[in-house]
Amino acid sequence: MSTAQADHRPRVVTTRSVMNMKKTGEKITALTGYDFLIARLLDQVGIDIILVGDSLGNVVQGHETTLPVTVDDMIYHAKAVKRAVKNALIVVDMPFMSYQTSVDDAVRNCGRVMKEVGVGAVKLEGGAHIAEIVRHLVRIGIPVMGHLGLTPQAINKFGTYEVRATEEGEAAELIADAKVLAEAGAFSIVLEKIPSELARRVTAAVPVPTIGIGAGAGCDGQVLVVYDMLGMTEEFKPRFVRRYGEMAEGMRAAFRRYIADVKGGEFPRREESY
Ligand code: KIV
Q1: Which of 38, 82, 98, 263 has its CA 20 to 30 A from that of 171?
Q2: Distance 147 CA to ligand 1 centre (A)
Q3: For residue range 137-180, what is the model confidence (pLDDT) as tens digits?
Q4: CATH H-level, domain 3-243: superfamily
Q5: What is the pTM for the complete model shown?
Q6: pLDDT at 6
Q7: Substitution site in 60, 66, 225 for ligand 1 pocket (most atoms within 8 Å of beta carbon)
Q8: Measured from the CA of 66, which atom of ligand 1 is nearest?
C-alpha cells in the first residue's frame, strides 16, 4: 500500500488538537457523516473531524434547504455517528432557529446536544451578530466551530448559492466577523464558497484554524459533504466538489443486477439458502 493510500494513524482528536494543527501546519481533514456505517468508515481511516451537518436536511431528508431541520433530527443522527466513532472529533451543526433567537435558547439546545449525545463541539452559522452567543457557550464549556461565507441557513437573505464576498465591502465584513468569532472563543471557522484569496487573508488574520469548502487551498483544512465526494449527488456539480467515487452509478448497477437476478430466479442459490 502506498503512503497516499495508507490510513492515517488513528488518534483521539479534540478541539485542542485541531487548534494545534494550525500551529504545526498539518492540514485538517473533515467530512460530513450522518449515520453509523459511514461514520465508522471515516473513523477507521483517520479522518480528523466528522461534521454531523444540517446538510442532512438536503441529502438525507430531501428538503430544498437546511431550514426545516430540527434539534431532534440532529440529535438522532449525531447519536448514530457517536456510536461508531472512537477517535474523530464529532461536531454537530445547530439547526436554523435553535440558537439565533437568544443566548438562553442557544444554551438549552446546544446543551441538549452536548449532554444527550456527548459530542465534542457544535457549529453555528454567522459572524458578529452571534458573537455574544458564541462567547457564552464557550464560557460554559461548549466548544463552538464558526461558519462564514455562504451560510446555507441564510439562503433566503442571499437568494442564491453563488460565491459570497466577491466585493471588498462583504470581504472586509467577513474578515471582521472571523476576528470577532475567534475573539469570542470559536476554536475553528468553516469558510464556505468564498474567493481563495479572501480565505487566505482570513486564515492569516485569525489564530484559529479555518476549514474551507469551496474556499481554496489556503485554508488550514478542508471539508466536503460526504455524499458529494462519493459521487452520490450526481446532479450537484459545483467546481469545489472533487469526486473520489462514482457511488450513484455503482449502486444503480448493483440494484439492477439484484433485480435481474431475482426476476430471473438466479438469486438466491442453494448455497445462499438454509
Ligand atoms: O451542513 C453541512 O454539511 C455544512 C458543511 C457544508 C460545512 O455545514
Answers
A1: 98
A2: 9
A3: 999 999 999 999 999 999 999 999 999 999 999 999 999 999 99
A4: Phosphoenolpyruvate-binding domains (3.20.20.60)
A5: 0.96
A6: 61
A7: 225
A8: 1
